[in-house]
From TrEMBL:
It comes from the Bacteria. InterPro entries: 6-blade_b-propeller_TolB-like, Hetero-Diels-Alderase-like. This is SMP-30/Gluconolactonase/LRE-like region domain-containing protein.
Length: 228
């Protein structure tokens, strides 16, 4: 496989809908394989939207209001939109603030509070891109910066407060609007190239890929409000 960015095929960005269907991204540098896929319970994987072979597809988010999917393209610095039933992928957002500097650009993505939020791993930023009444992308707003190799992120359920995974530093940072960023987990807790964060109630799930540390990939849990 001649996958852009990594040289190997990769599955990323898993989303699960209420009926148990899993949607995921597959990047393989192959026009017949790269794209958005779905897997129904007891079924076989099926590609529902093709995406450019020059893309490394990274983050996947679903808008529960419309069913639309938003997909980050780390090599091309873009956000793609796919309808709830698949079909043609449409370019939704692009620009220098989504583009890579050395390696990857647009990375993590979430739909939250009337906007699509996107991290840029090379630029160390998290952007808020408003969803207009027509569903198009509004002006890009930088909501956080100075985040060394920021990968995925997740909202805590308290307004725009979020937890961000910093890949190379092996950290998770709590970002609260109007307050200083705070490191809440680090390598002493077992983080090894922190790649993604998910929040379920008061439980936080943190995945580490150990891509450069030489350690073990792992999944750990913590609890909002205290280290765990």
């Amino acid at each position: 496989m001649n996958t852009p960015g990594t040289g190997f095929a990769a599955v990323t960005g898993i989303e699960r809908t209420g009926d148990g269907t899993l949607y995921f991204l597959y990047s393989a540098g192959d026009e017949h394989l790269t794209g958005l896929w779905k897997l129904r319970p007891g079924g076989k994987p099926e590609r529902v939207a093709a995406l450019p072979t020059a893309s490394f597809l990274n983050g996947l988010a679903r808008d529960d209001r419309t069913g639309n999917f938003y997909i980050t393209d780390s090599t091309q610095g873009r956000v793609w939109q796919v309808g709830p039933h698949g079909g043609t992928a449409e370019l939704w957002a692009a620009g220098e603030d989504l583009a890579p500097v050395h390696f990857f650009g647009a990375n993590g993505v979430k739909v939250h509070n009337g906007a699509v939020w996107v991290s840029n791993i090379d630029r160390g930023t998290i952007l808020r891109i408003p969803l207009t009444d027509k569903g198009t992308a509004g002006p890009h707003q930088v909501k956080a910066s100075g985040l060394d190799s920021v990968d995925d992120f997740a909202f805590t359920g308290h307004g725009d407060q979020l937890l961000a995974a910093l890949n190379i530093p092996n950290k998770v940072v709590l970002i609260t609007p109007g307050k200083a960023d705070r490191i809440v987990l680090d390598e002493s807790d077992g983080l090894q190239n922190t790649t993604s964060v998910a929040v379920d109630g008061d439980t936080v799930y943190v995945a580490s890929g150990a891509l450069t540390t030489g350690g073990d990939a792992n999944l750990l849990t913590a609890h909002l409000g205290h280290r765990g």
